[in-house]
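Here is a typical protein record:
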Amino acid sequence: MVHRRNTTPLRVKLFGLATVVGLLGGCDEWENVMKTEKVTPQYRAQPDSAKQLISYISTASSNGKRVRMTGSGHSASDIAITNEVLFTPEKLNKPLNLDRTRLKNPADDKLVRVQSGMRVREMNTFLDSKGLAFTNLGGYDGQTIVGVMMTATHGSGLAYGPIADQVQSMQMVVEGGRMVQIEPTNGITNPATWRGRLEEDSTIPVELIQNDDAFNAARVSFGSMGVVYSVVLRADQKFWLREVRSKIKWSELKKPGGYLERLTNGLSVYADKPSPEHWELQYSPYADANGDHTFLITERHRSYTPLPEQPASQRGQAGTDFISGLTTIVEQPIAVVLDTFPSLSKVLLEQTQTSQVDDNYTNVSFDILTALSMR
């Protein structure tokens, strides 16, 4: 656990009149969601615009101070925090206009631009309203879009990369308060029509950098290359998923030429029906009487034709949704019981796997992929 001492005398030396730059939120403690990391920065603020973000970073840079911005605090690492100048993204959470006149393909209707602090949950709603969807998602929707990008959060399916792969362009404020727009070498922006100004504030100059190395380094950099203001993502057309969950023994799963070998080699899993586009494997570390382990296979098949959007109560065995919610509420007592009687863990895991078995559950993509949704 990280505890850092607040150095109050630096306040005057650092910024003089702190009210001028608006860093009035300092001295209060910040901690991540899991409460494994805590820090009391010299200054803490919630920038609400590109201009404010630039002003804060410019002032901090000129005084030689480290600047970091958190996501929504779901990382167990201290890499995104500092005891000097710490920003949090709650107020940078809105969709933005994308100047299509600067694009190589102005008609590309699957590109969307949003501020860095918009959470996956809000992004799902925003994209859905436009008939769009994330190509792939992790299992949780409370993270910020840049948080999942910077940490290479992935999802299910070998054919789909991490969410960072959906990012096409990012606007980042770097040392000195300079804003850059970073894209691949063959990026979406046409340099010939690039105006060099921020869409929502023409007083802010933006330097266009189209370079594969810079782009790849910046998008999964854990915030170490600058503070991201906005990103442009390439979305998919809205789609639905059909989910099938079944149990299988490890001895069966690993047979030569069997399910696992065919799946990992990119071969069709089944001879008589389509292979799933998304899949997951969960297993119990406790062996049965024969020394074998039980796996739960989750298969998800895409459909761009609407499927029934079933309530969560119809997912898995009857009562699974209720038991899942109850488990969340009594999580700490259960942990105490399992610490005291560890032999119960095997039974609990087996029952959890069995409760999820389902031969057909359908819903819109993000309601299935984000199993730990906070909506």
Observations:
- The CA atoms of residues 25 and 245 lie 48 Å apart.
- The chain has twelve helices and 18 strands.
